[in-house]
Amino acid sequence: MTDGPFICVRGEAVVEAEPEIARLSVHVQSQEGDRRKALDRLTERNQRCLELVRSYGEAVEKVETGGLSITPLLKYKRREGDVRAYRGTVWIKVTVVDFGVLGELVARLGDLERTYVNGPDWELRRDSDVYRRAARQAAHEAVGRARSYAEALGAQLTGLVELSDEGLGRDQNIRGPVTLAAAYGGAPGGAEEPEPIDLEPETQVVRATVEARFTATSPDLDAPLG
């Protein structure tokens, strides 16, 4: 353990960047009086939705099925009774990388029968260089702040004792995502394609904080203040 003085500081950085991916959550539903018919109808609508999404090729990076359910709907809520219908739901998760087609895709998905679209959720990739850039800026800020304190005391930094990462993350979205719901009847046959929705990517804000402890030479407390 050194006998010299320590200078402890916190370095902070805020970096703004354009999002790299957009996530959509698509729910496809069916509701029929017969269980098998509800499942068959759900299968048809799910396939139609997947075909639409896959038609965008490399603009869509990933398509995943998040879950499937067939739920009986009873006539009476407070006691056992006859089933009045069966409701099927498929949850599809879509990751889009080409924002130029996003507005069109969202509009066309929302136009499908009994299809609900939530999104987009704008994000950075987990391994985005933006996070590393924010961490580096926070570390540089810590060094600069410690050096400034040392110079104010007539001292100089001599070494780094400890550097700890206090936090690195993206600010959560303040506004909620767009939500679209298609009419149960769906678009009438032969209807024109819906107009694309104008979607502006949401700026991503990454914050990084580090705490650092430096050793320094003995301060010159008798030196005149600058």
Description:
This protein has about 230 residues and is of the alpha+beta class. The protein folds into two domains: about 1-20 and about 125-175 and about 200-225, 2-Layer Sandwich (Translation Initiation Factor IF3), CATH 3.30.110; about 20-125, Alpha-Beta Plaits, CATH 3.30.70.2970. Helix content is about 25%, strand content about 40%. The protein contains three helices and eight strands, in the order ββαββαβαβββ. The strands form two sheets. It has a five-stranded antiparallel β-sheet with strand order 3-4-2-5-7. A three-stranded antiparallel β-sheet has the order 1-8-6. β3 and β4 form a beta hairpin. The longest helix has 24 residues, at about 130-150. The chain is elongated and about 90 Å long.
- Helical content (DSSP H or I, runs of 4+): 10-25%
Helix/strand-derived class? alpha+beta
Strand order of the largest sheet: 3-4-2-5-7
- The count of domains is 2
CATH architecture of the largest domain: 2-Layer Sandwich
Looking at CATH, the homologous superfamily of the largest domain is Protein of unknown function (DUF541), domain 2
| Main sheet specs | 5 strands, antiparallel
SSE series = EEHEEHEHEEE
- Supply the number of helical segments: 3
The third-level CATH topology of the largest domain is Alpha-Beta Plaits
The rounded Rg comes to 28 Å
> How big a fraction of the residues is strand?
35-45%
Overall form = elongated
What's the total number of strands?
8
**Residue-averaged pLDDT:** 87
**Which CATH class of the largest domain is shown?**
Alpha Beta
Contiguous uncertain segments of 5+ residues:
181-185
| C-alpha end-to-end distance | 32 Å
